[in-house]
Design goal:
Blueprint (H helix, E strand, L loop, with lengths): L2 E5 L3 H13 L3 E5 L2 H10 L4 E5 L7 H10 L6 E5 L4 H9 L4 E4 L4 H12 L9 E3 L2 E4 L4 E4 L2 E4 L2 H12 L7 H8 L8 H16 L8 E3 L3 E3 L3
Parallel strand pairs: 1-2, 1-3, 3-4, 4-5
Antiparallel strand pairs: 6-7, 7-8, 8-9, 10-11
Helix pairs in contact: 2-3, 6-8, 7-8
Length: about 220
């Protein structure tokens, strides 16, 4: 599933969103200031950014502008109490993709995230490469009529590789893309996850589905 960054100084709201999205198997991370957001965005990739407008220190608008100016491509949804048309225009003109006024229903936010991820350059429901089909929503891998259900991190890792076929990723790159930045994980964690994932795929006759390019990284080929 997608990796989401929430930038929100309302700690109670951030915790509520974290609880909801984690039950949906998203990789979810929250920070409470613009400075912390920019620091994370320098080193880690996210699939969607949920950005509060009124932040202490650097504002949400300035975070958005800075991120876009430096080449950031992830979709951004502003979460704000600003309701005026000029405010909405300013938010969208700064580089945001969508705008949700507080208070909001989490189900509407989730629907907007799914809509952004369905864009042509974004995500599709299921993934198929060769004989291997992955259904991320259920963490199920199919080869013909046979299937296995993966552990959450195994599924996220396989999904990431299948969404980027023919590209090799180092352990560090996979760590940054699949694990939250504050997770107690290392490149050894990635290697262990790849090993156990290969063992799972081997039960379907696909142990070599994830290839290792020595000195380059891990990949799947289409």
């Amino acid at each position: 599933m997608a990796k989401i960054l929430l930038v929100e100084d309302d700690v109670e709201l951030a915790e509520r969103l974290a609880d909801w999205f984690e039950t949906e198997s998203y990789v979810f991370e929250a920070v409470h200031s613009g400075e912390d957001a920019l620091q994370l965005l320098k080193s880690f990739d996210f699939d969607v950014i949920l950005l509060d407008w009124n932040l202490p220190g650097i504002s949400g608008i300035d975070v958005c502008k800075h991120y876009r100016t430096n080449g950031g491509q992830a979709p951004i949804i502003f979460l704000t109490g600003q309701v005026s048309i000029p405010a909405r225009s300013e938010g969208l003109d700064s580089g945001a993709d969508d705008y949700l006024v507080k208070p909001f229903d989490i189900r509407e936010l989730a629907a907007r995230i799914r809509s952004l991820l369905r864009r042509p350059s974004g995500f599709v429901a299921d993934l198929t490469i060769g004989e291997v089909k992955l259904q991320p929503a259920t963490r199920t891998v199919w080869v013909g009529e046979a299937n296995i259900i993966l552990m959450p991190k195994q599924s996220l890792l396989l999904e990431f590789l299948m969404r980027h076929p023919n590209q090799a990723f180092t352990g560090k790159a996979l760590l940054n893309s699949v694990w939250p930045s504050d997770a107690a994980a290392s490149e050894e964690t990635v290697r262990t996850c790849v090993k156990t994932l290969r063992q799972q795929l081997n039960t379907l006759g696909q142990k070599e589905f994830i290839k290792t390019q020595h000195g380059v990284g891990y990949m799947v080929t289409s």
